Each structure stands twice: as C-alpha cells, then as structure tokens.
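Folds vary. Our protein:
___
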Amino acid sequence: MKDFMMLFHSVPNMEYQPTPEEIKAEIDLWQDWIGGIAAQGKFKSTNALGYQGKTMHSDGTITDGPYAEMKEIVGGYLICTTETIEEALELSKGCPALAQGGKVEVRDVMIFED
C-alpha cells in the first residue's frame, strides 16, 4: 500500500454568497464522499486550507497570498492509501470539487527512510 495526496483545485467565484442551507449541503457532500473512502479503509487524513497566506520567493521577497492570481485555488487535500495511483484516481471521481468545475490532482507521497 502507498499513500497518495489528492489536492482539490477550484476556480473561485468571489461574487457567490451561499446561503447557510447551501453551505450545509456542500459540507454534507464532502462528508459523504470522504466517508465512502473511509468505509473502504483507504482514508488517512484531510483538511481544508484557509485563505490567508504568504509566499517566500527564492530572492527573499515575500508576497501576500499563496497564489499570484485568483484564477485557481488549492482549497484542501486528502491523503489516502491505495495499491496504485490508478486506484487513488478512481477514488477521486466522486470529489465534490469536480461537480463545480474544479479538478483533483493526485500525487504520490514520498517516504524517506533514515
């Protein structure tokens, strides 16, 4: 078994102001999808990422925000354990970000032994 990280990319809509009911429905979608992965014994961890951030550049300058433009944001991640990257991609198919025009980037997690 190997760990894979799913990074959730979305296109922000700064004008969208969801109602409390819409927020709850969105949370329920995420909980159901993650719960399905957990029920298969393939879930390790997840978290959403906040909007506050700064970026350190190689020349020592620091800029506000984790991204230069608001064209796309990484809103969170999930770490799962599967046999192959193809299996991790299969798990990503139900991600709620996809239904909103987003994407899921799946990357292997490298383990460095001492």
